[in-house]
Amino acid sequence: SQTQSTLQKTQVEKEELQAQMTRIEARVEEYNNKTAPLINYYKAQNKFHSITGVGTVTEISEQLIALLDSL
After folding, report:
1. pLDDT of residue 10
2. Alpha-carbon distance 43 to 27, whole Å?
């Protein structure tokens, strides 16, 4: 029936969303365990520099170039 088909579709969508959430959580955990600790490591050596990374590709490129030019 139409209702059963809709319920099955909803269940599949729910399972797909849960799988996506699991992958996102794993990526965040990986970042927190392996990448984030490097920030303090490089800050302690005065080798850490950051940009916001928000904007168009051109804007971000300009931020990176300005940072590199300042080093």
Report:
1. 87
2. 23
Contact between 67 and 51 (Cβ < 8 Å): yes
Cα-Cα-Cα-Cα torsion 18, 24, 29, 32, nearest 10 degrees, comes to -150
Residues of the chain with pLDDT below 50 are none
* Whole-number pLDDT of residue 59: 95
pLDDT of 21 reads: 97
51 neighbors 60 (Cβ within 8 angstroms) = yes
Which residues lie below 8 Å from residue 25, measured CB to CB, with a gap of 6+?
Answer: none
Locate all alpha helices (DSSP H) within the chain, ordered by sequence.
Answer: 2-30, 36-44, 57-70
Does this model's pTM top 0.85? My answer is: no
Cα–Cα distance measured from residue 65 to residue 59, given in angstroms and rounded to the nearest whole number: 10
